C-alpha cells in the first residue's frame, strides 16, 4: 500500500465555525466546500481536515448522529511559546496551559467552537528534554 495523502474527518454541529477557527487562527485554507462539508488544507501540514455537519447523508447511518469527541489533533510547531502568545492575543482560550512532559514533549491545547481539541507541540532537545 502507498498512501498519497491523509485527511481526518470530524462530524460537527457547525461546519462554518470550525472552518473559520482553523482558517483564522491556524492558517488553513479551504480546499473545497459544499453544503454541510468543508475540506481544509495547509501546504506545510501532512493532513487535510474535513468537517462534516452532523446528520449529513453522506455519512453512513450509524455515524450521522455522532460528533467529534475525545480526539486531539496535534501539530508540531516552532516557537511554541510565541504561538501561545499569538493565539491569546487573538482571543483564543488556552484550554490546557503550556507544559512540558517528562519525555520531552512541550505542549498546550486550544479547542475550536465545536469542541475539536488542538494540541500544539514542540519537542525539547538535549538538556531541555528532562
UniProtKB/TrEMBL annotation:
Coiled coil: none annotated. Residues 2-123 form the VOC domain. InterPro entries: Glyas_Bleomycin-R_OHBP_Dase (IPR029068), Glyas_Fos-R_dOase_dom (IPR004360), VOC_core (IPR037523). Pfam families: Glyoxalase. This is Glyoxalase-like domain.
Amino acid at each position: 500500500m502507498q498512501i498519497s495523502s491523509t485527511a481526518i474527518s470530524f462530524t460537527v454541529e457547525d461546519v462554518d465555525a470550525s472552518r473559520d477557527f482553523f482558517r483564522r487562527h491556524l492558517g488553513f485554507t479551504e480546499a473545497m466546500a459544499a453544503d454541510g462539508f468543508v475540506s481544509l488544507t495547509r501546504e506545510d501540514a501532512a493532513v487535510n481536515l474535513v468537517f462534516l455537519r452532523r446528520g449529513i447523508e453522506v455519512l453512513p447511518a450509524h455515524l450521522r448522529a455522532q460528533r467529534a469527541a475525545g480526539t486531539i489533533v496535534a501539530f508540531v510547531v516552532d516557537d511554541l511559546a510565541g504561538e501561545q502568545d499569538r493565539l491569546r492575543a487573538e482571543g483564543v482560550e488556552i484550554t490546557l496551559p503550556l507544559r512540558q512532559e517528562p519525555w520531552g514533549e512541550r505542549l498546550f491545547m486550544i479547542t475550536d467552537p465545536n469542541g475539536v481539541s488542538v494540541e500544539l507541540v514542540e519537542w525539547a532537545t538535549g538538556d531541555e528534554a528532562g
